[in-house]
Write a structure and sequence with these properties.
By secondary structure, this protein is of the alpha+beta class. It is built from four helices and nine strands; from the N terminus they run E-H-E-E-H-E-E-H-E-E-H-E-E. Strands 5, 6, 7, 8 and 9 form a five-stranded antiparallel β-sheet that branches. Strands 2-3-1-4 form a four-stranded antiparallel β-sheet, with helices on one face. The chain is elongated. It starts with 15 loop residues before the first strand and ends in a 9-residue tail after the last strand.
């Protein structure tokens, strides 16, 4: 089922950021089959997150890509042909909740540590490690929050960073399973 094709911002090629929620069998090799379909068709995956669902026999793959509406429709049809795929939904920006976890190691000394902590508090993040020369920060939120905190902390010098990829669910009572 393809949903969520309206109210998006396009780039010069007509591509838009799309979030696909794909429920698959929780068995070995499924992720490579699904991501292989994207790569064989020339799509770069901007964000990828995978994990077991509330039903242990299924996993949910959340993928963000740049594509046109017709390209996404074609991808959904191709994904639904894979025997390991149970359901594919294109989530609408206005009717989904999405989050990403970012862990950032930032250069910090006694003179900059206070300002870094202040920035982290503004973004409702956490300091999860502290050393004489660095601070490790955890921030959870949407893409714009992630990008903003990265911009703010980059002036201190980002040593390392890890991002989980976006996880997303549709709002309301409906489920991807249709029950």
């Amino acid at each position: 089922m393809v949903t969520g094709m309206a109210d998006r911002i396009s780039d010069n090629n007509g591509n838009e950021i799309r979030t696909l929620s794909i429920v698959v069998d929780n068995v070995a090799g499924v992720l490579s089959k699904v991501t292989g379909l994207f790569s064989r068709r020339g799509y770069n995956i901007d964000s990828l997150a995978v994990g077991t669902t509330e039903k242990p026999e299924f996993s949910r793959i959340t993928v963000k890509i740049h594509a046109t509406g017709s390209q996404v429709s074609h991808l959904v049809l191709q994904l639904e042909k894979l025997p390991c795929v149970g359901k594919v939904v294109v989530l609408e920006e206005t009717s989904m909740i999405q989050r990403e976890l970012i862990v950032i190691k930032v250069k910090a000394d006694s003179q900059t540590r206070g300002e870094i902590i202040e920035i982290v508090n503004i973004f409702r993040g956490k300091i999860i490690d502290l050393s004489p020369e660095s601070v490790i920060v955890e921030v959870t939120g949407e893409d714009d929050k992630a990008e903003a905190v990265i911009r703010m902390l980059s002036k201190f010098g980002i040593i390392e960073m890890a991002r989980t990829g976006v996880v997303a669910l549709g709002r309301g009572r409906d489920t991807i399973y249709g029950d």
